[in-house]
Amino acid sequence: MQELSRSKLYEIEKVSNFKELINRSAKLYPDKVAFTYKKNPKDTTYITHTYTQLKEDMESLGTALIDLGLIRKTYCYYCTKPL
Predict the structure, then answer these.
(1) 3-state secondary structure of 36
(2) pLDDT tens digit string along 34-56?
């Protein structure tokens, strides 16, 4: 089996959270497609979202959560039985 070279192939920029990753992607690739989807499985057309649109959607979600009073709160529920 051939060993892989120990030299770096690419420079790596570290990010510490998902928000940083999206902000970085929106800055570097504002008009590139971040993801595509279909509204219904039977549709033949796809809807695309750019990194800029994804960043705007995430910011809107964050604002909506803050408006609901969910600032700096962590909720995690683990249930083994139905409630």
Answers:
(1) strand
(2) 999 999 999 999 999 999 999 99
Mean pLDDT confidence for 7-18: 84
| pLDDT for res 83 | 47
56: helix, strand or coil: helix
Sign, Cα dihedral of 17, 20, 22, 28 = negative
Q: Report how far residue 26's alpha carbon sits from residue 53's, in angstroms, rounded to the nearest whole number.
A: 8
What is the residue extent of each domain of the chain? Answer: 18-67
* Continuous segment of H or E residues that includes residue 49: strand 47-50
Element (H, E) at 26: helix 18-28
